[in-house]
């Protein structure tokens, strides 16, 4: 006997999402059905680690992300991350520093 992912309780699916990268959740589970969309939208305190080869532009949940770690990415547009509270920059560029303004990132804790 086997169990379908869709038959699992919401709490277990959210627990599984806790071990999954937000990019994978966004691309793998978004628009499967209304239930998954609601579960994804209910996620809080989402962290995102960006490296050179990742495509952050297509992240559907940018307004839910509260923490970003930028490892080796030169060009990133931070404005979509309106609820960002924590930002860690390894080797910050001038472009990064220009975007760290209270009108662009109003929830960023200094």
Write the layout of secondary structure elements.
Blueprint: H1 10-17, H2 22-29, H3 34-41, E1 46-50, E2 65-70, E3 86-89, H4 94-99
Parallel strand pairs: 1-2, 2-3
Description:
This protein starts with 9 loop residues before the first helix and ends in an 11-residue tail after the last helix. It contains four helices and three strands. The chain has one domain. It is an alpha/beta fold. The model has no long low-confidence stretch (mean pLDDT 80). 15% of the residues are buried. The protein has a three-stranded parallel β-sheet, with no helix packed on it.
Q: How would you sum up this structure in a few lines?
A:
The protein has 110 residues and is of the alpha/beta class. It has four helices and three strands; from the N terminus they run H-H-H-E-E-E-H.
Task: Give descriptors for this structure.
single chain, 110 residues, alpha/beta, 3-stranded parallel β-sheet, 4 helices, elongated
Strand order of the largest sheet: 1-2-3
Biggest beta-sheet profile = 3 strands, parallel
Tell me, briefly, the overall form. Answer: elongated
SS content category: alpha/beta
Terminal CA distance reads 52 Å
User: Total domains, how many?
Assistant: 1
Percent of residues in helices comes to 25-40%
- Strand proportion: 5-15%
Q: What does the radius of gyration come to?
A: 16 Å
Number of helices: 4
* Secondary-structure element string: HHHEEEH
Q: How many β-strand runs?
A: 3
The average pLDDT is 80
Low-confidence blocks of residues: none
């Amino acid at each position: 006997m086997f169990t379908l992912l869709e038959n699992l309780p919401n709490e277990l699916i959210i627990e599984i999402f806790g071990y999954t990268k937000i990019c994978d959740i966004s691309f793998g589970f978004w628009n499967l059905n209304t239930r998954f969309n609601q579960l994804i939208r209910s996620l809080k305190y989402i962290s995102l680690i960006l490296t050179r080869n990742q495509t952050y532009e297509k992240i559907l949940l940018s307004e839910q992300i509260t923490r970003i770690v930028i490892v080796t990415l030169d060009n990133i547009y931070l404005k979509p991350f309106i609820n960002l509270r924590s930002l860690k920059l390894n080797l910050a560029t001038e472009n990064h520093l220009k975007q760290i303004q209270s009108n662009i990132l109003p929830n960023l804790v200094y």
